[in-house]
Specification:
Layout (H helix, E strand, L loop, with lengths): L1 H6 L1 H7 L35 E6 L16 H6 L5 H8 L4 E7 L7 H11 L4 E6 L8 H8 L5 E5 L4 E3 L5 E3 L1 H12 L3 E4 L4 H13 L5 E3 L12 H12 L4 E4 L18 H15 L4 E2 L13 H12 L4 H16 L48
Helix pairs in contact: 8-9
Length: 380
């Protein structure tokens, strides 16, 4: 099916409109205009399935110290913060009742604290996937520190592998050891963006740490070429054979490599790719997400929701519930913050006890060396 989808991309690309410039879309006038033929989100009526958005980004460039990340190409041109309140105004009309923030190229350890603070202040936020470097000597200290907050549900890290002397992908032993601690803390691992190396590394990591919940973000955005089509199909099968690898069916609408970044909105092409991934990973291992505001200028939130509602309209109600909120509950173990959010199906383990103080000024308790607020960088 993936091969058939790739074969049809030529016609889809030819028919797809090029993305508009950000100057055409000023958020003071609301979200970006919808494509005339793109499906739109259904309003959240009584009995409708509530939606948890498992992937958004937050940042605020007006902060004195911030990560430096200001969104995707179009949103950078708009040059505005991305806050929970701004997101909620666009997401709630599309039936989204909760969201998880995934780190946005965070460079400083206190970026995690900012994610937690702004999420705590807005109940639409049900979880944080932060930035802790598994290659850092301070990983255990920061893991214990941030895991005390029930909103801290995962980290995002994709640099846990290298290439050996023969050029093959190889895991970094130090990082694998630390990711075992992440699994013991009952937290998940986000990985992005999909590449052949990262997908192969995820398979190796899933075997090395079988109780770690590994999330492959944005898998539909990977566009195989004729040269790597067979290798892509093979690694999809390998990932699908690992029960602890999960997939976000996100960035379904995305600029294609080359071709001036044309955005394919041909539904049949997109449906074929989604069906291939859905059949490979199954109904229990896929999640919804918008990737807002990286999606700004590519697809509106209503389009992103509407596309997946159209795709899942041929599935059972139970399969729809799993995709739109139940699976993210089991994988992230997010926290219910408001009455309109569904009751979580899984609860995270209690936070571990605070590390014993001693030695050179303690081991990472609030106010200790490298504590959040100190601006100490975590590389990677």
């Amino acid at each position: 099916m993936a091969g058939a989808a790739l074969t049809g991309i030529g016609n889809a690309l030819a028919a797809a409109p090029a993305p508009k410039g950000a100057e055409d879309w000023d958020e003071k006038n609301g979200p970006a205009p919808a494509a005339p033929d793109a499906p739109q989100a259904l309003p959240l009526r009584p009995g409708a399935i509530p939606i948890i958005d498992s992937h958004i980004h937050l940042f605020d460039q007006t902060r004195p110290v911030f990560s430096g990340y200001t969104g995707g190409l179009f949103y950078r041109q708009v040059n505005k913060p991305s806050t929970p309140a701004m997101y909620a105004a666009l997401a709630r009309p599309a039936g989204i009742v909760g969201a998880i923030v995934v780190e946005s190229a965070a460079q400083f350890i206190d970026d995690n604290l900012w994610y937690l603070e702004v999420s705590r202040d807005n109940p639409i936020m049900v979880g944080v996937s932060g930035n802790l470097d598994p290659g850092s000597n301070d990983f255990t200290k920061y893991l214990n520190h941030f895991h005390r907050d029930p909103l801290f549900r995962a980290i995002r890290s994709s640099r846990f592998y290298t290439r050996d002397a023969s050029g093959k992908v190889a895991l970094n032993p130090t990082q694998v050891a630390n990711l075992k601690l992440l699994a013991q803390a009952d937290l998940a691992l986000d990985t992005a963006n999909p590449s052949m190396d990262l997908m192969n590394a995820n398979v190796m990591l899933a075997d090395a740490v079988p109780d770690l919940r590994i999330i492959m973000d944005h898998l539909p955005s990977f566009d195989p070429t004729p040269d790597n089509q067979a290798a892509y199909e093979a690694v999809i099968k390998e990932m699908a054979a690992c029960p602890n690898i999960f997939v976000k069916l996100t960035e379904v609408y995305h600029p294609t490599p080359g071709d001036n970044g044309i955005i394919v909105k041909n539904y049949e092409f997109l449906r074929a790719r989604l069906e291939h991934l859905f059949q490979a990973f199954g109904e229990d291992r896929v999640m919804f997400g918008t990737d807002y505001p990286n999606s700004y200028g590519v697809a509106t939130i209503s389009e992103a929701v509407g596309l997946m509602q159209q795709f899942f309209s041929t599935k059972t109600r139970a399969q729809q519930e799993k995709y739109f909120w139940q699976n993210s509950s089991k994988i992230y173990k997010w926290v219910q913050r408001s009455d309109d959010q569904p009751t979580p199906l899984a609860q995270g383990k209690p936070a571990p006890p605070a590390p014993a103080r001693g030695g050179r000024g303690g081991r990472g308790g609030p106010g200790g060396p490298g504590a959040p607020g100190g601006g100490r960088a975590v590389t990677g």
